[in-house]
Amino acid sequence: MIESARPALLLDLDGTLVDSVYQHVVAWREALERAGIDLSIWKIHRRVGMSGGLFVTALRSEIGRDLTSVQEESIRRDHDLAFQRLSRDVRPLPGALELLERLSAEGTLWAIATSGTMATARASLEQLRIPAGVPVITHDQVAFAKPNPDLFLAAAAELKVSIADAIVVGDSTWDILAARRAQALGVGLLSGGYGRAELETAGAFRVYDDPADLLGHLYELGIRGGRRP
Amino acid sequence: MIESARPALLLDLDGTLVDSVYQHVVAWREALERAGIDLSIWKIHRRVGMSGGLFVTALRSEIGRDLTSVQEESIRRDHDLAFQRLSRDVRPLPGALELLERLSAEGTLWAIATSGTMATARASLEQLRIPAGVPVITHDQVAFAKPNPDLFLAAAAELKVSIADAIVVGDSTWDILAARRAQALGVGLLSGGYGRAELETAGAFRVYDDPADLLGHLYELGIRGGRRP
Question: What topology does CATH give the domain B21-89?
């Protein structure tokens, strides 16, 4: 008898589980301003969640000139420092803790996959009280972060599930693009500040407000709950 | 011979001419946190630009309890103080100064209409170097700010143009709703961080990136340029 595997959830971190996107935006703004680069804040917002390397490429295209690798490194370091200062304010999004608890309690496999580094993500991860054994994939573990599919592929591999049985949950178009490239189902959350249509147009199967809203609609994703055999 | 009037532009301020929406968001977040209210930042973002009074009503609905008028006043004051501190960073959006100069040079009438108070708006207005004679309508001059149409109606009245000949330009759904209620044409800008479809669905006739993009496409709005007779 054919019996497909139970879906696993591969979850983005910033804007998906923790309310940290706007602090990242402000941190990038500060770092760019210090480097003498004047980029509108909404354009920064729409580029948060992509890999830092790609962000710098996007930046080059916006400002119309090349940055030296010293400048790039200094912008990235200034962002990380500013974010660490601002991230004292960062809280889990509504329903995030409850969602993760429910998934674990029901035996649905899940993992975290973030374009950030462990250094930047640590404070947020601590707030989420990730149980031992849950894979946390950061940029440190792959050569290319989102929208490359590598972070999600690595998370599925650690869970020992096929990526085709995985559901990627993220707040940005970069998550959804990475999900499509990985051949996983993409689900969007509005809690990072993107509009619903931006995520739907990128290919999200469903868009929910935040983790609490997703938790209330897990059945819409075919997540049946109940312990694994 | 029938000859319709030339369109006048009624421009929102925050997110439309100056890059200040994210600072307002962070300022509201600080003020709410100080009041012990935990509201996700993206939800604050989507409510910036509406009148402060309506914002507090929205807040009541989100947190599920009433605020005393003392609490409301204290949240509003904390926001204003935090914004004044953060708004040292605020800059005109790309093309804002050029757009206003072009409108003036070509004799197209324009005015500014903002849900903020003059106390909050002053720093931004100074950066825009508004010429004498250009109406600036703030919440101080009307009983109800956006999405009530009053600010735009007052701006049209000061310009002595019919509201039906006015084009409202704003970055938020509150501007577009106010434009519809006023029977003016609404045009959206992405520079406040809303998604294109949010503004189009609200009824925007066109959506441009920012003032520079609008400046390059004024002809699409039927603005012909040339001095007034």
Answer: DNA polymerase; domain 1 (1.10.150)
Which CATH code for domain B8-19+91-221? 3.40.50.1000
From A40, A94, A201, residue closest to B210, measured CB to CB: A40
Phi-psi region of A36 (alpha: psi -120 to 50; beta: other; left: phi over 0): left
CB A24 within 8 A of CB A181: no
Residues of A with CB below 8 A from B29's CB?
22, 89
Nearest residue of B to residue A42 by CA position? Answer: B193
What is the per-residue pLDDT across A7-57, written as a single tens digit (0 to 9) for each? 999 999 999 999 999 999 988 999 999 999 999 999 999 999 888 888 888
CB contact under 8 A, A22 and B26: yes
Domain ranges of chain A: 8-19+91-221, 21-89
Flag whether the ipTM exceeds 0.90: yes
Q: Is A22 helix (H, G, I), strand (E, B) or coil?
A: helix
